[in-house]
Amino acid sequence: MTATLWKNPSFRSTVTDLVSDASLAETLLATPPLSLFYCGLLFLLTPLLVAMTSSHRLTEELWTGASRFVLFRTSRFAWCLGKFSGQAVVLLVALVASIPVAWAVGWWRMDDFPGVATATTMLVFSLKAWVFSLAYLGMVSGLSLWVRNPGVATALGVIGLAGWSAWYHVSSHYADAGWTFIFEVTRLFAPQAYQVDLLRPGWSHTVPAGLSLLLLGLLGLLAGYLRLRRRDL
Amino acid sequence: MQTTALTVRGLRKRYGRRWALDGLDLDVPRGSLFGLVGSNGAGKTTMMTCCAGLLQVDGGEINLLGSGFPDPDRLRGRYAILPQDARLPLHARVGELMFYYARLIGMTAADARNQIGELLEWVNLSDRRDAPVRTLSHGMMRRLTVAQAFLGQPELVFLDEPMSGLDPREVNRLRDLLTRRPAGQTIVISSHILGELEMICDHVAFIEKGKRVKQGPLSAMVRRHHRLTYRLRPGNWPEGMLRALPVQATWSFLPDKQVMEVMLDDEQRDPVEVNALILRVLLDAGVGIEEVTRGSDLEREFLHATATGS
After folding, report:
1. Which of B75, B52, B56, B76 shows the shortest CA–CA distance to B65?
2. Phi/psi of residue A75, each to 5°?
3. Which end of chain A is less crowded, N or C, counting CB atoms within 10 A of the terminal residue's CB?
């Protein structure tokens, strides 16, 4: 059934429309089907996972006072960076740990399952999804430092995620229409602007996209740090 | 070497419209065990957290260990605080958490492990080293928070209500640790149990409404060199003979309260010698002596100082 779907022109056309790039669509459609589904799910769900699980981490430590045992021992900047790095590592472990589970499902349920190729491409996609999520991680962490309540921080993270996505689509619409320069610029502050480049094969597109996403994340974190720097604990 | 571990000048901190600290001045001598005494909301906790760099100040100056405003980068491991109402991360394990704190101040892994062992033994938590913090009782958590403040033997330690939640045995242990601290280590401690402060502190400051009311060595604050109080049995007290003694003092006879107070003038000689003279007269007159107290007590002096605003 998967093979039939893969050859279906409508499906191929849908994938091409989704990535808005014919050559990238061909590259993606050349990967094992399970990897592609896995990739789609990762890029769709990882930002949400970040918003749901990471956005309240820093606020929680400030809320409970746990940070007061730390922030006379290290600077607030180092603490922010450390928390960001720690969350990033946990996220990476979670993404990589999901590979064997998804792979096992394919091995058990799919005919003509290309085990090695699927595992390899899943690993590559999970690493790319991780880099993609760093921008969201920085953004929700930064946002959370502006509020006191962990519940509010989570809500703000989810709202921020939705708002960011909506803003990207609005900006893209007007920018593509050649409407104004401002939309061209503002869409660059959305992670989705780098998603296609991140998915391309080869380093020439992936590395700049990855660095831009990391920079976005750090900018978000910096915005939060600017609040934390002058905040009572 | 600086003679003060902490100097505070005109410190101001506002919560909304209310000034929690309103021009507080404080000089904490290096190596002292310095007690902060004040009513609820007087500003003790705010002062400590400002000095530890956890609160932003709205005015004034702090000179911490001769290095100006508190800065964890510059003063890493040289000062520590036991915050009053902060909660330790519940998911962490006791030993791991202490190790994390120790590494943050730059201790080597080996030193950290050794010192954590000693501190956990001191707070009687050695057997809970691998236990998650969430499994500890309230008192155990309190002991752990006390222990973390002494990691790395900091030069200056702020202890905000450290006795709260401790059982008598642990209070005794803490008192023992504080009095046997390394030479030169300065402790600033607040507590509502003034008797405890009186037992361990050598310097005290009274704080009220965000200002220092009075500060000095404990002996001066409780007037140990100036005041003798006698609790006597009812009878014919030899008032005339006592007043005739060669003692420069002000006498108060309160027979209905069975109390006689002697306030020695500044130029008066040693109160021990004065006491010997007074006791001889009282014993010769056959007056029953129930108790002799030298100096006042912190509670009384605090109430007096804050009532008059002196």
Report:
1. B75
2. -75, 160
3. N
Cβ-Cβ contacts under 8 Å, A231 against chain B? 56
ipTM over 0.95: no
DSSP structure class, residue A174: H
Q: What are the tokens at B301?
A: 């002096």
CB distance B101–A70 less than 8 Å?
yes
Measure the CA–CA gap between B120 and A78, rounded to whole angstroms. Answer: 28
Could you please report the per-residue DSSP string of A109-171?
A: H-SS--HHHHHHHHHHHHHHHHHHHHHHHHHHHHHHTT-S-HHHHHHHHHHHHHHHHHHHHHH
* Nearest CA among B147, B153, B136, B166 for reference residue B98: B147
Tell me the CA end-to-end span of chain B in Å, nearest whole number: 32
List beta partners, residue B186: B156
Q: How far, rounded to the nearest angstrom, does the alpha carbon of residue A159 sit from its chain's CA centroid?
A: 15
Give the whole-angstrom CA distance, residue A179 versus residue A184: 9
Q: Report if pTM > 0.90.
A: no
Interchain contact, A72 vs B53, CB within 8 Å: yes
Angstrom distance (rounded) from CA A91 to CA B103: 24
B113, B126 Cβ separation under 8 angstroms: no
pLDDT in tens, B196-246: 888 899 999 999 999 999 999 988 887 877 888 999 998 888 888 888 888
The minimal CB distance from A232 to the residues B55, B71, B148 is found for B55
CA dihedral B18, B20, B23, B25 (to 10 degrees): 170
